[in-house]
Design brief:
With 413 residues, the chain is an alpha+beta fold. Helix content is 50%, strand content 19%.
């Protein structure tokens, strides 16, 4: 029924135009005879051409939309699409979709007013340049594409309008063969595809980040669950020797070892530690090293009480302390000193571990995976809100500084 009404509307429009032509011919005094046959022929050819385009319009509409009704048969199509992004990001998606339309020209993007205009011009093929087909091809009109964004709370609504570049009165005489419907449906599909692609990438990024966090947590659990065999062996060997020569020092060393091992147990809930807890662990480890190294190791600690409760990932301070001893002070004849300093304000904690040892060595010592893992854990835990720097200490040695948000959870990725 909708198809019959559509073709009937075209017939009514052309017969109305024929009546208007006869009235004008009679009223203007040109009625010195019958209407010339040229006018009649032009009217008849135009009617046949419009009916042919109407049949083509019906076929394409049914093919594109799967149905024929007043909405799909219209030459002027409107579609509203909800985009779950802010205005700027949504505007970029819309502009990208419009520019990908075939034969699109004159794209004007007004980001300030959140509007975009474009023109789709049908190409003229070589065959259509023949004189006898050029007139028929002139029935093809350009299509105007307009997109208007309406932002809301964290999302945007996009209204697409596709219509011929001529007055609405011409729609009665000249169907656009489903062109506007095809373009507006293409824009809706393009936006849906781009949104689906973004969601897939976001889900992939979330899965990748979760896998990285799980891997880092597993590596940290392994690190916390095991103590370096050489460290344990050397400490127990030293304690065994001291038992015979200096039982008091041996007892003290074993006490620090027990304290260190107790504080190195994995955190099963995956929560952050605090600077105070990490300092206690590192202090126990340094006391063992000081008993082993004697006067070759001097420890300086300058951490204000206000910084002790600041949350931080576990084992980070320990990593910096071990690097300073292992690669800076143990290889240095006569040993040296290590400094642990912290500063805190309302927004950030700055933690520095420095030594006056061998510094950066040409043999590459000290460039293992410890610092790489430290940087990766900072990235996964805080995103871009944390930083790690390492450089030369003056006049000798190395200084490494970690800067963290001063509140728990701040800047988490």
């Amino acid at each position: 029924m909708a198809s019959i009404k559509f073709l009937g509307r075209i017939l009514v429009a052309w017969f109305a135009a024929w009546c208007v032509l006869l009235v004008v011919w009679n009223v203007t005094g040109w009625n010195r005879g019958d209407l010339p046959w040229v006018f009649s022929m032009a009217w008849f050819v135009g009617l046949l051409a419009s009916l042919a385009r109407g049949v083509t319009h019906l076929y394409r509409v049914r093919t594109i939309a799967g149905r024929v009704d007043a909405e799909t048969l219209s030459n002027r199509q409107r579609r509203r699409v909800e985009v779950p992004y802010g205005a700027d990001e949504a505007f970029g998606l819309v502009e990208e979709a419009v520019r990908e339309l075939p034969n699109v020209h004159d794209v004007v993007a007004r980001r300030g007013s959140l509007q975009l205009h474009a023109t789709v011009r049908l190409p003229r093929t070589e065959a259509s340049r023949r004189r006898w087909r050029a007139w028929f091809a002139s029935f093809d009109r350009h299509t105007q594409v307009t997109a208007t964004l309406t932002p809301s709370d964290g999302s945007s609504s996009v209204m697409f309008v596709c219509e011929p570049d001529i007055g609405a009165w011409a729609d009665w005489f000249n169907p656009d063969t489903g062109t506007s419907l095809e373009y507006v449906e293409s824009l809706v599909r393009a936006i849906a595809q781009k949104l689906a692609g973004r969601r897939n990438r976001e889900r992939a990024d979330v899965r990748q980040t979760a896998m990285e966090k799980e891997l880092t947590a597993a590596q940290l659990g392994l690190l916390q669950a095991q103590v370096e065999p050489h460290f344990l062996y050397n400490t127990l060997a030293s304690a065994q020797e001291l038992v015979r020569t200096d039982p008091a020092r041996a007892d003290k060393m074993l006490g620090h070892l027990i304290d260190y091992l107790r504080r190195s147990l994995p955190r099963v809930d995956g929560s952050l530690s605090t600077l105070g807890q990490e300092l206690e662990r590192s202090t126990a480890w340094l006391e063992i090293m000081r008993l082993r190294m004697g006067e070759r190791l001097i420890v300086h600690t300058d951490v204000p009480a206000a910084a002790l409760g600041v949350p931080m990932p576990s084992m980070m301070l320990q990593t910096l302390v071990e690097n300073a001893i292992k690669h800076g002070l143990e290889p240095k004849p006569g040993g040296g000193g290590i400094w642990i300093r912290a500063g805190v304000d309302a927004s950030a904690l700055s933690l520095t571990v420095a030594d006056d040892g061998m510094g950066f060595r040409s043999d590459g010592a000290g460039t293992g995976i410890g610092l790489k893992n430290l940087r990766e854990r900072l990235r996964l835990t805080y995103g871009g809100a944390a930083s790690f720097t390492i450089g030369n200490n003056f006049p000798n040695g190395v200084a490494a500084t970690i800067t963290l948000p001063a509140t728990e959870g701040a800047g988490h990725a």
